[in-house]
Design a protein that fits this description.
By secondary structure, the protein is of the alpha/beta class. Helix content is 47%, strand content 15%. α1 packs parallel to α2 and α4 packs parallel to α5.
Length: 261
């Protein structure tokens, strides 16, 4: 996609300090967008911002805990003041932890819902008015294959990602006549630091080696591999383009074919 495709548009990426969020921020900048990066860790924010600026786009770093409504509202207000109205929102902030159902604490349950679902809601609620005013907007929620099918020992995570997909579809329906689309990307296992931690946990609990544990995850896909943050980012940019204007309210699976409608 050419750098002119999203030229002049401002994108907000939550969870943009690393992993999939960082890949999305850089891909949007490559397509011409100026990017505001929201995350909790300042060093990671600055690293992503340096990458955006290296692509000759403006970058704004905003330390923010997406689970705190007031922080998100202030962050989007600052973006409006310093970069301009938000016309693209990518909600990539998230956590993933596993536990047997009866071992899930109240805190773990609440953390998953607050970060994975409420955080996206707060960001969308703050950004959508800019899109309505402009008569154009794109919302991309980074969900998970768990928004479509559950996995063992992931009740809190699965519930939060189902909530995120439901939020996406409600947004898509409500704003379909306003020039705004909302879609969710539902990837399988991604080759990220979060997955590396999952591999370590599997290895520790099952006495497998890390390589054996990784193969367990790879074999969940017919393509027998983990997927890259850049693959998610490429799809994100496409969904933000004019070519994708008819795609709305979808939970698009990116997993090599293990889940088919």
């Amino acid at each position: 996609m050419s750098a002119a495709e999203l030229g002049g548009k401002v994108a907000v990426v939550t969870g943009g300090g690393r992993g999939t969020g960082r890949a999305c921020a850089l891909a949007l900048a490559q397509a011409g967008a100026d990017v505001a990066i929201l995350a909790r860790t300042r060093a990671e924010l600055e690293e992503t911002a340096a990458g955006v600026r290296a692509l000759s786009r403006r970058a704004l770093t905003v330390p923010c805990d997406v689970a705190e409504s007031a922080q998100v509202t202030r962050a989007v207000t600052r973006v409006r003041e310093e970069l301009g109205p938000t016309l693209i929102l990518v909600a990539a902030a998230g956590i993933a932890r596993s536990a047997k159902f009866t071992d899930i604490s109240d805190e773990e349950w609440d953390d998953h819902l607050r970060i994975n679902a409420s955080g996206a809601f707060y960001a969308a609620r703050a950004a959508v008015p800019d899109m309505v005013t402009a008569g154009w907007g794109r919302v991309v929620m980074i969900a998970s294959i768990s928004a479509r099918v559950p996995a063992l020992y992931t009740a809190a995570y699965t519930a939060s990602k189902h909530a995120l997909l439901g939020l996406t579809r409600a947004l898509a329906l409500e704003y379909a006549r306003k020039g705004i689309t909302a879609n969710a990307i539902c990837p399988g296992w991604l080759d990220t630091a979060m997955t590396a931690q999952s591999i370590a946990n599997i290895a520790a609990k099952t006495k497998r080696t890390p390589d054996e544990a990784r193969r367990v995850l790879e074999e969940m896909s017919p393509q027998r591999r983990l997927f890259t943050p850049e693959e998610v980012a490429d799809l994100t940019v496409y969904l933000c383009s004019e070519a994708a204007r008819a795609i709305n309210g979808q939970g698009i699976v990116l997993d090599g074919g293990s889940v088919m409608p």
